[in-house]
Amino acid sequence: MTRKVVYILPGLLACIAIAMIGIALGRFFPNLGSGLFAILIGIIIGNLKIGSYPILKPGEKFSGSILLYFSIVLLGATLTFNSLFEIGLLGLAYILIQMAGTIIFVIWLGKKLRFGEDFGLLMASGNGVCGSSAIASTAPAIQAKESDVAVSITIVNLLGTVLMIMLPVITNAIFHNNLLRSSALIGGTLQSVGQVVASGSIVGEAVKDQAAVFKISRIIFLVAVVFVMKQIKLNKGEQPKTQETFQWRTIVPWYVGGFFILCCLNSILYFPGTVTHSIKGFGNYLEIIALAGIGMSVKIKDLTMHGWKLSAYAGGIGLFQIVFALLLILLLL
Fold first, then answer.
1. Do the Cβ atoms of 117 and 142 come closer than 8 Å?
2. Which of 86, 197, 208, 297 is most buried by its number of CB atoms within 10 A?
3. 136 with 221, same domain?
4. Residues 73 and 87 reside in one and the same domain
5. What is residue 53's three-state secondary structure?
6. Residues 202 and 101 in one domain
7. Each residue of 201-214: pLDDT tens digit?
8. Closest C-alpha to 201, from 31, 46, 67
């Protein structure tokens, strides 16, 4: 345990320092928010020589993943099922149609650009559900090659990073930061939980929280999506080399389970306001540290090093997701 702490400590301290600067700047510029400053400073530091030392990587990864997941779990203690039901049946319909449309389009575009089927399926699950987590869950089910997994994770994360910055501008211009519609666009479109939290934080605290609810709603369907991807592979006549059984604990992210457990407890026990306020405050601090870690992991050179074909694939997916989501939101919400 001591070794692990020492292993992650340098990068964790760097992320905490960036987060503290972000919080200080956020107090001077409350309209922009601490989260935006944390992720921007993280991107700047991460692309300088000082931020590229290998000793920082473990703590950077820990901050951008584990701390973020804990902040999502703690979010459950501040919500009740009434909060989850706020998106309503139309909100759920929006999520399902958006996911289905994205998956179908990504598979179709991948075929048009002559990418391998496995790569297209990985891209479909990553963009349709929850980024790297969905890709990691889908890969063993379709027995994808490691090279396809690595490239799909990279492209999905790069696309999500670009959309993470673009969507707050779009919500402001089209929806004037309307809570439900802005949350639906961000939570229903972005690839990873971290990107949803970061993008929502730029717009506002309420949008961040409800966008997370939309995002959690998508993650709930991860098991079904992985099952569909496996069936697509089987229907092509490619029999798996080994028989695999689905295990819920390995497909459903642990933080989703934690989120729902705390949400259930709060729905039954109704935690006092002082308790939920403290939990929310602590969760926000964890989130800002996580955003610093996410920012440090973004490498600007990665945005330009991939070929035109992959760029066209990512660009086409991003454009479709935005346009399709806007149409659905205007029709349903």
1. no
2. 197
3. yes
4. no
5. coil
6. yes
7. 888 888 988 998 89
8. 31
